[in-house]
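[worker-b] picked up task from shared queue
[worker-b] task type: protein-ligand structure
[worker-b] ligand name resolved to fe (ii) ion; SMILES cross-checked against name lookup, match
[worker-b] sequence length check passed
[worker-b] input payload:
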Amino acid sequence: MTKWTPDLSTGVAVLDEQHKAIFQWLAELESATVEQRTLFGVYVITRLKHYMREHFAAEEAMMKAAGYPDLAEHLAQHAEFRAKLEELQLKSIGEDISMDTVRFLNHWLTNHIARTDMAYVPYLNQKR
Ligand SMILES: [Fe+2]
Ligand SMILES: [Fe+2]
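[worker-b] inference finished, payload out:
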């Protein structure tokens, strides 16, 4: 279920690599949940949170440099997701991560890349 697929490719190599790494963390989170490895789950969601922070910063810098017109809306989505991850990470310390959480993250990320990230592709390409 949690997998990067070529239809999610932005054609921007560095961002595709980051998106693939995000899905790898998500697959780890799924294993932690299925195998009920609580501490591993806390570790993975923490790493995912830090990784997302770096990825969002990289993406935001590239959009700014390209003069992407819908930057504000994109930043708002990132901010909302960062807050959600913060909340889920704190929750993971006190209780097991549920499959609903894994599904939510998978759905959000797939949807965000397929729609929101894909919209910046022509602008980033124009710049290069
Ligand atoms: Fe992204
Ligand atoms: Fe994004």
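[worker-b] attaching auto-annotations
[worker-b] The chain has one domain: 12-127.
[worker-b] releasing lock
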